[in-house]
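Final paragraph of the annual report: two paired records, presented back to back.
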Amino acid sequence: MFGPDADEQLADFIASQYADKTGALVFACLLHLADDNSGARFWWRFAAGVGHEVAEYCLFLDHAHSGEYHDADYWRRQLVHHHFEPVYMCGDRHTAPLLNPPCMDQVHPHITRQQHPEIGSVPLPQAALVHQLRHLTSPL
């Protein structure tokens, strides 16, 4: 879910040492578009765990798409509990920047992986990814 200020949200995520829930959502969506589904799920779960309803919605969609209906139903119940409305919560998508599809390979060099002893490999954005996101979302 990229809004017009996605690059700033990603910068806030990095500056907060990966504690900003909105930046985590942006990074998760970027990972998803770059075909890193496990990394995307990790950061969507983080954002959902600290109350970001759009991250809950992304998890619902991802689990439903993967045929994981029990997990999808869990996130659906969370969304119903919060009275989530996708159109209202996600805003006018016409104002969102579009990513140029052929350049998603330019994202991978700006992501590092840190090994955590209990949860495994965790993708983390490098500061240069903010500039790359600006470049990817700029008009042609």
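The closing record of the year follows.
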Amino acid sequence: MRGREALIDIQFQDTLVQGVFLERLNRFVLVCELPSGSREKVHLPDPGRLKDLLVPGGPIWLQESNDPKRKTKWSAVMTHDPTNDIYVSLNTQYPNRLVLEAFQLEMVEELKDWRLEKAEYKVGGSRFDFLLTHKQNDQKLLLEVKSVTMVEDGMGKFPDAVTARGARHVEELTHLQTKGNYQTAVLFIAQRTDLQGITSAPEIDPHFARVMERAACQGVRFFGRSCIVTPDRISLDGPIPVYTKKD
């Protein structure tokens, strides 16, 4: 849509510090070494396995927090995949922020007939990332955004760890789609550039793969985007295909 000129981005400027990843204590806490040589516990926003990205001794970029209520002073922002020589974002909040700005600027070509109505929209007991309204009528569309970091043979894979929550979201979208009250869609945001498409990972989460394929058959639409990640910023890049069949 915009070629390589990414206009929608989150700038880091001089806020990042390059450290060294040492170990992972649990899903959300790392131990990293700062340039000063001190070892710090670091918040990890991405609960996925990240086994090919978090390699002991590898570089990791950190951001300091000024929030006195936080248990950890630092957050992991990105790492570097040496296999493909590419930066990969580790913050699962960035995709939603980028998509929100893209809708505000009306720069989501895949959904150009829809305008943003509300973020964090609740239907029954469920909350969805975005509610959209068709520009020509009153039809509504519920959109879920999912972050992708794992790549295998040039293909982005989701999820990289079993996600009951992710499967439930897609099942709920399928139910609402079949009822006819809403149009529904899922937008995968790959927080890296080195991929040609996105698909499920049945070898990791066969249930999600089945749910995703069933959803596509019932009319839930699936879209994909990649991101350009550098030590200075993460930028929303162009569309990439999503393959919904397990094979």
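The chain has three helices and 17 strands. This concludes the annual technical report; the extension proposal builds directly on these records.
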